[in-house]
UniProtKB/TrEMBL annotation:
<dbReference type="GO" id="GO:0051287">
    <property type="term" value="F:NAD binding"/>
</dbReference>
<dbReference type="InterPro" id="IPR014026">
    <property type="entry name" value="UDP-Glc/GDP-Man_DH_dimer"/>
</dbReference>
<dbReference type="GO" id="GO:0006065">
    <property type="term" value="P:UDP-glucuronate biosynthetic process"/>
</dbReference>
<dbReference type="InterPro" id="IPR008927">
    <property type="entry name" value="6-PGluconate_DH-like_C_sf"/>
</dbReference>
<dbReference type="InterPro" id="IPR036291">
    <property type="entry name" value="NAD(P)-bd_dom_sf"/>
</dbReference>
<keyword id="KW-0520">NAD</keyword>
<dbReference type="InterPro" id="IPR036220">
    <property type="entry name" value="UDP-Glc/GDP-Man_DH_C_sf"/>
</dbReference>
<dbReference type="InterPro" id="IPR028357">
    <property type="entry name" value="UDPglc_DH_bac"/>
</dbReference>
<dbReference type="GO" id="GO:0000271">
    <property type="term" value="P:polysaccharide biosynthetic process"/>
</dbReference>
<dbReference type="GO" id="GO:0003979">
    <property type="term" value="F:UDP-glucose 6-dehydrogenase activity"/>
</dbReference>
<dbReference type="Pfam" id="PF03721">
    <property type="entry name" value="UDPG_MGDP_dh_N"/>
</dbReference>
<comment type="similarity">
    <text>Belongs to the UDP-glucose/GDP-mannose dehydrogenase family.</text>
</comment>
<dbReference type="Pfam" id="PF00984">
    <property type="entry name" value="UDPG_MGDP_dh"/>
</dbReference>
<dbReference type="InterPro" id="IPR017476">
    <property type="entry name" value="UDP-Glc/GDP-Man"/>
</dbReference>
<dbReference type="InterPro" id="IPR014027">
    <property type="entry name" value="UDP-Glc/GDP-Man_DH_C"/>
</dbReference>
<feature type="domain" description="UDP-glucose/GDP-mannose dehydrogenase C-terminal">
    <location>
        <begin position="316"/>
        <end position="417"/>
    </location>
</feature>
<protein>
    <recommendedName>
        <fullName>UDP-glucose 6-dehydrogenase</fullName>
        <ecNumber>1.1.1.22</ecNumber>
    </recommendedName>
</protein>
Length: 436
């Protein structure tokens, strides 16, 4: 089978590379010529473990091609995946202008039956809109189907998530479209991955509901963590015991500085809009969004409280990406921390294993260091924002000896409070501050 993927951002590129690994012929399209040129050589524009090898291998074996022309992908493909960006507009709704543009282009070149699949996270009802946009621009009357096939890829572990997913969701209108989609995912079918086959609207809503539920879980445990700090409880033990209940499950109960990234913050707000437009109330999701904003602010106010005043103080930040194994800083909690510190007159020095160039573009005034040890030299406080593996086993005695004051804010709870206190740090974490 031959498929086309329009948009070589995170979702499009991972999807294209993984399908080609399944033995499918894939043409990935992006209008950015430089990007396509680089991709042909195997240069990946972002950091994702394992992706470069996968792209290089499948390009070399002739199953993965890149082009700047939508026409190239459409003519040869039976299924065309739309994987372009749907950035949030000022009011939080998803901007569908790229999806519309691509739909119209598909209409222009469609000469035979095709199935048009949305991979991007799109508001409920977008499938219907795509059908309308294509019909309006189509020459003649070619038969086509629309399908929704949301992705559940986590940045940093996207390839594993694609190859061994918990489920594959397919929303489609016709038996032919369902059969093609099943065929495409045959390797996953063979390893008994559960398939959820449903209508397009349901598939579209599954994506928003899944992301929003995970966001709710995180905000819930963050609020419980803050309560733990007030009552002498340990949030890790609370979360572990909760998670042992199979109805709750252990995942996404890790407290921290609030969720970030390009998905949860955007998708929760988009879902609230969708509900609002229909006069439906989603109080739980709304509360999760508010709790997340408060969590970010709380982390800064704790730091401020510990330092008295941050003005003129030097603060070291370890970890800038919104989570480990990615250079993505979109909605990263570190952005809020750095902005608050700079606004209140602190001097900030920072280090991240891969996201430094991205953060430099946003905050050129921060002093970027070459490693963790350089970052803590002479600081009044150290704030660990992202749990990169290389921060899990730092030489703590060396860290302490170079800091001006031993204020250690571990916002990912990677160190043990009693050990840190024993070492002489003023150690602050999330939900384990008051345990005796
Ligand atoms: C998320 C979902 O997990 C994917 O299933 C989904 O496909 C993707 O969004 C998307 O919509 O494209 P991602 O944003 O890459 O994936 O990252 P997550 O691992 O979900 O983490 C999101 C944020 O929550 C991070 O800031 C992370 O630090 C935070 N988090 C996560 C916690 O604070 N606690 C946890 O227990 C888990």
């Amino acid at each position: 089978m031959h498929i086309g993927i329009i948009g070589t951002g995170y979702v499009g590129l991972v999807t294209g590379a993984c399908f080609s690994e399944f033995g499918v012929s894939v043409t990935c399209v992006d209008r950015d010529e430089q990007k396509v040129k680089a991709l042909k050589k195997g240069d990946i524009p972002f950091y994702e473990p394992g992706l470069e090898e996968l792209v290089k291998r499948n390009v070399a074996e002739g199953r993965l091609n890149f082009s700047t022309k939508v026409k190239d992908a459409i003519e040869s493909s039976l299924a065309i995946f739309i994987a372009v960006g749907t950035p949030p507009r000022g009011d939080g709704t998803a901007d569908l202008s790229y999806v519309k543009e691509v739909s119209e282009e598909i209409a222009r070149y469609m000469d035979d039956y095709k199935i048009i699949v949305t991979k991007s996270t799109v508001p409920v009802g977008t499938g219907k809109k795509i059908r309308k946009w294509i019909k309006e621009k189509m020459n003649g009357n070619v038969d086509f189907d629309i399908a929704s096939n949301p992705e559940f890829l986590r940045e940093g572990s996207a390839i594993g998530d694609f190859m061994r997913p918990d489920r594959v969701v397919i929303g489609a209108e016709s038996p032919q479209a369902i059969a093609i989609m099943r065929d495409l995912y045959r390797p996953l079918y063979l390893i008994e991955t559960p398939f959820v086959i449903t209508n397009i609207e349901t598939a579209e809503l599954i994506k928003y509901s899944s992301n929003s539920f995970l966001a709710v879980k995180i905000s819930f445990i963050n609020e419980i963590a803050n309560l733990c700090d007030l009552v002498g409880a340990d949030v890790h033990i609370v979360a572990r015991a909760m998670g042992l209940d199979k109805r709750i499950g252990p995942k996404f109960l890790h407290p921290g500085p609030g969720f970030g990234g390009s998905c949860f913050p955007k998708d929760t707000v988009a879902l609230l809009h969708l509900a609002g437009e229909r006069d439906a109330e989603l109080g739980v999701v709304e509360a999760a969004v508010k709790a997340n904003e408060k969590q970010r602010a709380l982390m800064f106010s704790r730091l401020k409280e510990a330092l008295g005043d941050v003005s003129g103080k030097k603060v070291g930040i370890l970890g800038l990406s919104f989570k480990p194994n990615t250079n993505d800083i979109r909605e990263a909690p570190s952005l809020y921390m750095i902005e608050s510190l700079l606004n209140e007159g602190a001097k900030v020095q920072a280090y991240d294993p891969v996201a430094t160039p991205d953060m430099k573009a946003v905050f050129p005034k921060v002093s970027y260091k070459k490693d963790a040890y350089e970052t803590v030299k002479g600081v009044d406080a150290l704030v660990l924002m992202t749990e990169w593996n290389q921060f899990r086993n730092l030489d703590l005695a060396r860290i302490k000896s170079t800091m001006k004051s031993p204020n250690f804010f571990d916002l990912r709870n990677i160190y043990a409070p009693d050990k840190m206190k024993e070492l002489g740090f003023n150690y602050y974490c999330v939900g384990r501050n008051s345990i005796k």
